[in-house]
Amino acid sequence: MSPQTHRGAKSRLTSRGAATRNRIVLAAAELMHVQGVATTTIDEVLAASATSKSQFYQHFEDKSELVYEVINLRAQEILSWQRLRLEKVDSLRGLQQWRDAMVQRCVLRRGLWGCELGSLAAELSDTDDKARASLAEHFAEWRSILAGALERMRDNGVLRDDIDAKALATGLLAAVEGGYLLSQTAHDPRLMQTSLDAAIAHIMSFAPENGERTSR
Predict the structure, then answer these.
(1) Which long-range contacts (CB under 8 A, 24 or more apart) does 197-201 make?
(2) From CA 132, how far away is CA 4, in angstroms rounded?
(3) Which domains does the chain have, with CATH numbers?
(4) Distances 34 to 11, 107, 156, 216 between C-alpha atoms, Å
(5) Model confidence pLDDT, tens digit, residues 2-49
(6) Measured over all CA atoms, what is the biggest interatomic distance in the chain, rounded to whole angstroms?
(7) pLDDT digit string (tens) for 168-213?
């Protein structure tokens, strides 16, 4: 199938075709998260999704295109989860509740598997520049969501006017990814809480001193 024909077929997907495509992407996402991108074969994806090779090639030119769809799927899942828990945060208590949700998510998996986006980034960033660019864009969006929460905390007088929200959000996101990695290697989700507690303590070092007034 030529690239033009392939793109045309995707744009004319029926509801049944869309369901098949989604089933393939979901199966690939699970396999790639558990056993890695490189070791996951198309045949394994077909078996897990109960689809045929002809169905696969109706929707994807090759494995690389499937990988890019897996990245987008995982990003949508993670960023939707983060927005839901961060979009109204404007206080220390709200930030702590987000931390608690992150830790609970880690506890439910007993620290296993790590971050879906982080795992993909570790495996693909040095070998696939298109994947790296896509992952960088998604991480930038995640950082922006975190920065938005910190900016609302600043606007609410919880943090000083002179904070660099983007820099603090970068540190907080690094704590998330580091917490995932440490929890994964130790199979101990408590390390996620330790990591996030340290990052939040640093953020709160930028709280106004007693009696200090904000400019608003």
Answers:
(1) 197/99, 199/171, 199/172, 199/174, 199/175, 200/92, 200/95, 200/96, 200/99, 200/172
(2) 25
(3) 1-61 (1.10.10), 63-216 (1.10.357.10)
(4) 31, 17, 42, 49
(5) 444 454 445 567 889 899 999 999 999 999 999 999 999 999 999 999
(6) 70
(7) 999 999 999 999 999 999 989 999 999 999 999 999 999 998 755 4
